[in-house]
């Protein structure tokens, strides 16, 4: 059951209304930057470009969870929930600016990553100093600007809520931000640790990174946040966590498959970019484990020698991807996606969510794990 994500997030005008809030933020940012210096407007351009992409899945999960727990469309409360959705999108933008610097990514959503774009400006205009350092510094500051905007939007959304909802929603939002920061560190640590000697340990570490860095903030926390905004009780929040975490992990595992086998026209990144960046994913850990078990020394050598090689040619990327596919690891990851998402849908099936929110959340969940980009 795979559905079109844009169509799903457009229901009840979720995406258009969240986009309008984000556009308002960019306009306000331009005003502030213009008052500071004419040289600063380029920062607003970069923020606007980052925000122009994205599927708004996090905002949609939050909104439809709110609807599933009694929220009514067309109310002031609905407007507040959409502002929280915008805060989630701004937080994601901040994480992506920073993540691209840490991963030294070349592209983001079909465009040069911010640190690359600003490094190019430095070179084109003949600035003094190191162009890459300039680009990285600008991207870090862009992430900080998006973080500030995210907090402003979240605080504004909660300003008129009853105190218990403020308290519980704030706790979820703050935990999400802390966990993502921890997850980013665990990802950096995983990239620095020896890899390839114990694939089982490599996989365990990869799944730890997935849960801390992306699974919770991509799916679990948005769903829990929507429920908290609807004043759900502790049992209902616990159910949201129980389905949100495995679904979020399945979502990231799908991302890892797309990072190797996805269509660049759909993903916005060159084919095999994750291999050049050396991402220590469950997919590559499973590939190495299967190659070692079967005595496929060529695949073992390919993975150990080339994973993380920034200068890898397209031919070598294709060979590495083919070896990963031939190992049978993608089928194992697909099975793990099915197991995790099945666990989430089982919890969902036992909940008395009203229609249309019930069907819509299920459709969003399927779209998140079945997507092709």
Overview features:
single chain; 373 residues; mainly alpha; 78% helix; globular
Model description:
The chain is mainly α and 373 residues long. It contains 17 helices and 2 strands. Strands 1-2 form a two-stranded antiparallel sheet. Helix 6 crosses helix 7 and helix 13 crosses helix 15.
Measured between the Cα atoms of the first and last residue, the distance is 16 Å
Main structural class: mainly alpha
Report the biggest beta sheet as strand number plus sense, adding barrel if it closes. Answer: 2 strands, antiparallel
Report the principal-axis shape: globular
- Note the run of SSEs as H and E: HHHHHEEHHHHHHHHHHHH
- By DSSP, the count of extended strands is 2
Rg over alpha carbons = 21 Å
Uncertain runs:
none
Mean pLDDT: 93
Residues in helix, %:
over 70%
Strand content: under 5%
| Count, helices | 17
Spatial order of the strands in the main sheet? 1-2
Topology:
Blueprint: H1 5-10, H2 14-36, H3 41-52, H4 57-68, H5 76-103, E1 107-108, E2 111-112, H6 114-124, H7 131-158, H8 163-192, H9 199-229, H10 234-261, H11 264-267, H12 273-277, H13 282-294, H14 297-306, H15 314-327, H16 329-349, H17 357-370
Antiparallel strand pairs: 1-2
Helix pairs in contact: 2-3, 2-5, 4-5, 4-9, 4-17, 5-7, 5-8, 6-7, 8-9, 9-10, 9-13, 10-16, 10-17, 13-14, 13-15, 13-16, 14-15, 16-17
Explain briefly what this protein structure is.
With 373 residues, the chain is mainly α.
